[in-house]
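Consider the tokenized backbone below.
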């Protein structure tokens, strides 16, 4: 196990390293499934978290991003991104293991406050490791393979996410139904398992090769300021920050809205998340191929309006009516949001790597992460603070048709965030137009290409099906003719005897 960067990486070492990066992604994804997202929200609700505390849980991953500045200093001092990534990923896993072990050692030690403190340190160490990992991957993965590689890695990780989420949700619901006194134990066991799997990802990273980076000699803050003076990169930061604010004003509360307002059980919420992920898995390979062939900006321009429509549509799922109708709308929303977020997340990640200069990639990527994180942190905290205010304010509009009243608008509570978030996200697309990317293609041409590809596939499949339909009857006719001729021959031979 060599921790030193390599002057030259052979093709064999590169291919082996990329496999290890994928394996690391799978183990890290399993850790994320068990220790964040819907399961963390459900655990916090079970422990009696307030709306403000739920907002803090949602803000933690972005609030601690400022500590990525420490990653720049460490990489500058050691000139070894693998060592920085491995050490701080190791430290980031320890709080997760502590959350799982503490209830076994100290009764009643699992409180909302303790959970927030431990996760705070987990995200600090994880952000320091993440910044150096991004710069490491920028040098390791060939630029022309960024889209296809990360789409493959993401597709495999999401497939694992779906499998684990479904199995875990069923297990949690079983515990809640038959062993309600042990529900908190089930959640802390997930954290312990996630921490152990996170340790496995550290081992895989230690075996991955690292190209020798070009040393950075300037002051950290001067380097950081240089990235902000790059006009094109600054335009990307402006778009990404506003987009992140809009999304984090609404999306962190989707699970809370479905559990509290619509009254869906946890397994239904997880099931909808799985539908979204399956849709994402089905399309991420396509977006990866198109991002390499056309541009990341074009992919965002195609996918972003679809996702904005999904955010706005969420506001109407709480209208009075049957739960079946609400569930049908939610299924449609999650299918469309899955295919659109697959393209958006991949393109946003890749365009940041693509526009960052090789020598100062860690600085540019850290600047992007920090400014986006600032916007992402403000949004859910503001949402948590304003939730009670909006809960006491309602906007209703009924449409009377032939003596029948039809409720068209019913905004209250989280619905306001969905509408406001969707409008801000729509406005952010104007900022995207100012970003320049090499190889950029107008989205109309990409749509025409996608339609032509789909049409050719349909023609090919329909042609094959038509041939099968024509061929199958001819085979049957020939078989029947052979049977009739054989029967006639047998009859003749019988008479001759």
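A designed sequence for it:
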């Amino acid at each position: 196990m060599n921790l030193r960067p390599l002057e030259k990486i052979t093709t064999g070492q590169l291919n082996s390293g990329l496999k290890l990066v994928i394996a690391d992604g799978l183990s890290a994804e399993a850790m994320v499934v068990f220790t964040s997202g819907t399961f963390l929200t459900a655990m916090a609700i079970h422990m009696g978290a307030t709306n403000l505390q739920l907002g803090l849980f949602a803000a933690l991953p972005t609030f601690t991003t400022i500590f990525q500045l420490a990653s720049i200093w460490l990489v500058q001092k050691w000139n070894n991104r693998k060592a920085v990534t491995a050490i701080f990923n190791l430290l980031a896993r320890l709080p997760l293991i502590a959350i799982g072990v503490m209830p076994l050692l100290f009764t009643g030690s699992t409180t909302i406050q303790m959970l927030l403190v431990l996760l705070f340190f987990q995200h600090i160490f994880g952000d320091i490791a993440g910044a150096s990992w991004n710069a490491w991957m920028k040098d390791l993965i060939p630029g022309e393979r960024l889209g296809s590689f990360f789409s493959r890695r993401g597709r495999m990780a999401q497939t694992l996410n779906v499998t684990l989420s479904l199995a875990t949700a069923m297990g949690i619901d079983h515990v809640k139904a038959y062993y309600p006194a042990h529900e908190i134990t089930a959640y802390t066991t997930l954290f312990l398992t996630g921490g152990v799997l996170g340790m496995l990802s550290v081992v895989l990273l230690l075996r991955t090769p690292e190209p020798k980076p070009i040393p950075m000699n300037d002051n950290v803050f001067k380097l950081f300021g240089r990235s902000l003076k790059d006009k094109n990169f600054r335009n990307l930061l402006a778009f990404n920050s506003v987009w992140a604010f809009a999304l984090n004003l609404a999306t962190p509360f989707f699970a809370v809205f479905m559990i509290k307002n619509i009254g869906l059980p946890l397994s239904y919420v997880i099931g909808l998340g799985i539908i979204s992920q399956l849709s994402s898995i089905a399309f991420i390979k396509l977006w990866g191929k198109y991002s390499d062939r056309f541009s990341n900006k074009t992919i965002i321009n195609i996918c972003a309006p679809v996702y904005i429509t999904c955010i706005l549509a969420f506001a109407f799922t709480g209208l009075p009516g049957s739960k079946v109708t609400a569930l049908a709308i939610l299924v449609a929303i999650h299918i469309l949001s899955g295919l659109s977020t697959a393209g958006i997340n991949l393109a946003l990640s890749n365009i940041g790597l693509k526009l960052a200069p090789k020598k100062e990639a860690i600085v540019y990527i850290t600047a992007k992460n920090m400014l986006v994180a600032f916007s992402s942190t403000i949004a859910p905290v503001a949402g948590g603070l304003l939730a009670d205010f909006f809960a006491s304010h309602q906007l209703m509009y009924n449409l009377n048709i032939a003596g029948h009243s039809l409720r068209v608008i019913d905004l209250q509570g989280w619905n306001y965030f969905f509408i406001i978030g969707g409008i801000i996200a729509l406005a952010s697309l104007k900022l995207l137009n100012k970003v320049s990317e090499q190889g950029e293609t107008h989205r109309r041409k990409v749509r025409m290409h996608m339609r032509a590809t789909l049409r050719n596939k349909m023609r090919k499949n329909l042609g094959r099906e038509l041939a099968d339909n024509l061929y199958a009857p001819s085979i049957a006719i020939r078989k029947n003719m052979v049977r009739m001729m054989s029967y006639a021959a047998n009859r003749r031979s019988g008479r001759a005897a």
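The beta strands are 394-401, 404-412.
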